[in-house]
Amino acid sequence: MPKTLLDKGMAKLLGLDTSGKGIAYQSESLSTYSFKQKDEVKEIFAASKVSGSNPPFGYNKASDLQVNFYKNLFYINGLSTHGFVSPVSTYAFKYYKFKLLGTISEDGKQIDKIQVQTRIGKALSFTGSIYIIEGDWRIYGVDLYLTKALNNLNFVDTLRVTQQYIPVGNTWEPLSFQYSYNGNVNGLRFSGYYLGINNNYKIDTVFKENYFNGEILHVDTEANKRSAAFWADKRPVPLTSPEVKNYKTRDSIAKLQESKTYQDSIQRDENKFALLPYLVDGYLATYKNHKDSLFVFPLLQTVYYNTVEGWGINLKGSFTKTFEDNRSFSVSPALRYGTADKMFSANIHSSYTYDPDNVGKFFVDFGSDVPDLNTLGTRSLYFNTLSTLISEQNFVKYYRSVFANFGYQRELTNGILWTANLSYADRTQLYNTSFNHIFTYSHLRYTSNNPLAPDAPQDDHSILFPENQALTFNTSLRFTFDQQYITRPTGKVYLPSDYPVITVNYRKGINNVLGSDVNYDFVAIDITDERLAVGLLGHSAFKIKAGAFFNNRNLYFMDYNHFIGNEGTSSDPTYVGSFHFLPFYTFSTKDPFLEFHFQHNFGGAIFDNVPFLRRLKLEEIVGANYLTEKNNPYYSEFYFGIKRLQFGADYGVAYQGNKKYLQGFRIFYGLK
Questions:
Q1: The model's pTM
Q2: Per-residue pLDDT reduced to its tens digit, 539-598
Q3: Sign of CA dihedral 352, 354, 355, 361
């Protein structure tokens, strides 16, 4: 570690010595790994030992190290957004040149050492050697490299992949697998390795019924409490002297850190208020060994301006308490006041998770608020403030709601989540009361708070809806096929599915109960896949949603089905399911609709072939959106652009039928 980082206290943070050297992270695990074709797996942790801070990427369980070079593509999570071509893939000769370097004999078998070199697509292929059993033509071992310069890896400069196979019955199975890496980030030089050793193979095992039930990893409650003698007996590779010293040192420090005095001291340091992080990220304080937490929302989401309320303040906080059995309770109060309309709002959102293993929870919300007429949201308070004051564009339209909401959620079985809630609200139309702005544009003016009266004066008081009361019942079922999860002592962790997620929703406006004025029935189905791997060309995402009101006797604008549109050049982060050019309110509907969204991320597959662009680590994006409903039967958008982390920019064109509707640039930030 360079002196510049030492002076900033980084050595203490990483647990290094005063010269900036040492082991920042060390971990071991012992597990039973079960596998059944096709790709049904379960791993049970018998022991786990971790020392230090987790690095940006990690492979510390057997399932992370089950790498199969017989598959056409080799994926390395955390280091690259796309796959790499295996030297024994069906199209290896397109990407590689091969050269026989020599032959050795082992256990009566002839092993060919073959050099592999890239032919085309350097960013997508390895260099190094593979070892093939003569006659059987099976892999005996691999020794391959990827580099930051050629393969555009994240975080590391060089990654070495080695694997050794042994005969097990009539098959050859992996004995060992290792990732070795090194890198340099701002002068911080590091190296490391992840080593997996497989033994005690049991071929043709008969598993009990429902053994493979979606749980791919189970961590025993005693896994992190194993003794030094246990590890000395079970560890297949002895620790090096620095590793032994690191464990002893950190174990001694851990005992000291378990004292209440130390914990209280650390808690006070971690909970110190810092102005700059609060402005953007908010303030987080934790208590009781991180079981309880208090969060205050950032200033960017607290002070705001809009034409309905004028300058306002929206104080929001959240407190969460977690019990020993992982049950939890959270409460989020909010106070809101507008200086122009003199309107004060106060509300509380709360939830109680009584069954964390099955996502079982109750939630209760009540109070008053000034919500968006588009129930899916248009712009955050922060972005609406910027567009209003700087661009003289008051995009978001508001109304007044005094409400109470009671809900329930639970997983009925693995992969099927049921949610239901009953809400009551008294809803009132609001009007513009403030017209401040920093810049004035001759071709722009503030619009009415009635989204269906775009040409009305800015102080328009036309009626969008009368004051009304609404009793609404909403329920949904979300189906996650082949849902996989990890069970830890701290609770269940769900993993993204390889299949589309289907959500079916039903919403009922109940008439003549508690004075309710609404009377409608709405049904929608949503099919979403957020990450669909497409070989060497990155990954795609899509969303299809269709719905209809089969009873629309009486409903108001906020009860309509709304869409996630965008009218500003810059905006909140987007995702698959949002439009780039669609007006926020114009096409909200009480008629049947169908929307389709598609986006493909090439993950650098194009730019990686251009040397100066490769260093920027940009991801290429293309996409399309489509909507059809009564008032907008053939609306479509097409766009292309670039992305890096949470920031992106693209250029697109929108059409209504065959006529061009809009075109232009869109810039998306990571702020909300």
A1: 0.86
A2: 899 999 999 999 999 999 999 999 999 988 877 666 788 999 999 999 999 999 999 999
A3: negative
CB burial string 120-144: b at 16+ within 10 A, e below: ebbbbbbbbbbbbbeeeebbbbbbb
For residues 215 and 485, the answer to whether their CB atoms sit within 8 Å is yes
Distance CA 356, CA 186 (A): 41
| Of residues 216, 228, 225, the one with CA closest to residue 32 | 216
**What mean pLDDT comes out for the span 196-217?**
88
What 3 state SS string does 577-637 have?
Answer: CCCCCCCCCCCCECCCEEEEEEEEECCCCCHHHCHHHHCCCCEEEEEEEEEEECCEEEEEE
**Torsion angle of the four alpha carbons 556, 557, 559, 561, in this order, in degrees rounded to the nearest 10:** 140
Q: Is 571 left (phi over 0), alpha (psi -120 to 50) or beta?
A: beta
On whether the CB atoms of residues 193 and 180 are closer than 8 A, the answer is yes
Integer angstrom CA distances of residue 80 from 61, 389, 426: 20, 41, 51
Q: Which of 162, 154, 156, 89 is nearest to 128 (CA)?
A: 162
Does residue 62 or residue 419 have the better pLDDT? 419
Q: What is the mean pLDDT of residues 446-457?
A: 92
Helix (H) or strand (E) holding 93: helix 92-95
Distance CA 528, CA 506 (A): 18
Q: Which long-range contacts (CB under 8 A, 24 or more apart) does 99-105 make?
A: 101/129, 103/134
Q: Are the C-beta atoms of residues 96 and 144 closer than 8 Å to each other?
A: no
The beta-strand segments (E) located in 389-441 are: 399-413, 416-429
d(C-alpha 221, C-alpha 223), whole Å: 6
What letter would DSSP give residue 240? P
One-letter-per-residue 3-state SS of 126-176:
CEEEEEEECCCCCEEEEEEEEEHHHHCCCCCCEEEEEEEEEEECCEEEEEE
In Å, what is the CA distance from 236 to each residue of 65, 195, 199, 247? 16, 11, 9, 17
Alpha-carbon gap, residue 454 to 393, rounded angstroms: 12
Q: Is 527 helix (H, G, I), strand (E, B) or coil?
A: strand
Peptide bond into 508 cis (omega under 30): no
CA distance 402 to 347: 9
d(CA 155, CA 339): 48
The answer to whether 271 and 286 have CB atoms below 8 angstroms apart is yes
Q: Which amino acid is at 547?
A: G
CA distance 563 to 550: 19
What one-letter code names the amino acid at 99? K
Task: Identify which of 52, 49, 51 has the alpha carbon closest to the alpha carbon of residue 13.
Answer: 52
- Provide the 10 A C-beta neighbour count for residue 603: 25
- Give residue 509's pLDDT: 97
pLDDT in tens, 532-547: 888 778 889 999 999 9
Q: What pLDDT score was predicted for residue 121?
A: 66
Q: Looking at residue 372, what DSSP letter applies? A: B
Summarize the chain as % helix, strand, coil (round to 5): 15, 45, 40
CB 496 within 8 A of CB 531: yes
Share of the chain above pLDDT 70, in %: 95
The helix/strand/coil state of 452 is coil
DSSP 264: H
C-beta of residue 306 within 8 angstroms of C-beta of residue 388: yes
How large is the average pLDDT for residues 49-64? 75
